[in-house]
Specification:
With 310 residues, this protein is an alpha/beta fold. The protein has nine helices and twelve strands. The strands form four sheets. The chain has a six-stranded parallel sheet, with helices on both faces. It has a two-stranded parallel ribbon with strand order 6-9. The radius of gyration is 20 Å and the shape is globular.
């Protein structure tokens, strides 16, 4: 891998990927929406002159929580255009490149068997239906482009990815960042910690460094394929919260669990058998170490950006 272009490079996973590629000495062009507005079908034309080995397509239009639910039509149109812009440019100007895209665990049928051959089957959870279906359409596009034009591709399905450096400026966050921020709000401003559900719903986390490293290894595969990148283990929200509280030196007994609120799927864990087969014996950052690192990172950002003890 010598020359790479990355869409969505300013996002959480994008920044981690670009950083890792730099460490590996790869010539990398990282694109944010300011560099190339993918809603414009011609936005990538200025990059035609370089022939890339890989295109990592991470860009998507999505916000966690209510904002996306209130703009379903816009979400669908935007993601379809973003993906069509990248797929069209790949086929027309970068046919030598391998296109690596990011799927979502939300695209699996809720409560089903989360293994790769089921990614396009059944109905995704209703609250994420539009986003999930746009990701299914992205994979469908890759498959068809590969079949007709002989192009190479890989789709990796992400479990919930966590680690240092998240953008926590918005109101809606992925669950692990949301819990951490609420714990810090309690620690520094005595704000009550209220989590949705009974806390026994189970979730899976993958550290962003592990995710990026495994995606890069998988990108060297010769076959066009879909691979889950998951931990293979899940934990309850209460277990995550207790570790985060320990790291922040907060008593977990102060957490309130609101059973009247929707807590989403009872369990969500990707089947990691294919990943284990392709990358046997991989090492990963232990969950406890990763969560302590997350609290330290978010606490430093919290104290620098907010008025503590208001």
């Amino acid at each position: 891998m010598k020359s790479v272009i990355v869409t969505g490079a300013s996002g959480f996973m994008g920044r981690a990927l670009v950083s890792r590629l730099g460490e590996l000495g790869v010539d990398c062009v990282g694109l944010s929406s300011r560099d190339a507005d993918l809603l414009d079908p011609r936005s990538l034309d200025r990059y035609d002159h370089t022939k890339y080995d890989h295109i990592f397509h991470l860009a998507a239009w999505y916000e966690v929580g209510d904002p996306s639910l209130h703009h379903l039509g816009q979400q669908w149109l935007n993601n379809q255009q973003i993906n069509t812009t990248v797929l069209g440019w790949w086929q027309a100007h970068q046919p030598q490149a391998k296109l690596v895209s990011i799927g979502t665990s939300a695209a699996y049928e809720d409560g089903g068997d989360y293994r790769e051959e089921n990614y396009l089957k059944g109905d995704p959870i209703q609250s994420l239906y539009t986003y999930a279906m746009s990701k299914r359409m992205l994979l469908t596009g890759q498959m068809n482009m590969g079949q007709e034009y002989g192009l190479k591709w890989l789709s990796v399905i992400a479990s919930t990815v966590y680690g240092p450096g998240p953008n926590t400026s918005g109101r809606q966050l992925q669950f692990i960042f949301d819990i951490t921020r609420k714990i810090l709000d309690y620690k520094y401003n005595n704000e009550a910690i209220a989590l949705w559900g009974d806390g026994y719903q189970r979730r899976e986390l993958v550290h962003v460094s592990d995710f990026v490293n495994e995606m890069l290894e998988l990108s060297n595969l010769d076959e066009n394929t879909v691979v889950n990148i998951g931990e293979g283990n899940d934990h309850t929200i209460r277990e995550f919260a207790e570790i985060l509280c320990e790291a922040a030196e907060v008593d977990p007994a102060v957490i309130q669990y609101d059973t009247s609120m929707n807590s989403g799927s009872k369990s969500k864990r990707l089947n990691a058998e294919k990943l284990e087969r392709l990358l046997p014996g991989k090492s990963r950052i232990p969950l406890r170490d990763g969560l302590f690192e997350l609290v330290l990172d978010m606490e430093q950002a919290y104290k620098s950006e907010r008025v503590v003890g208001r």
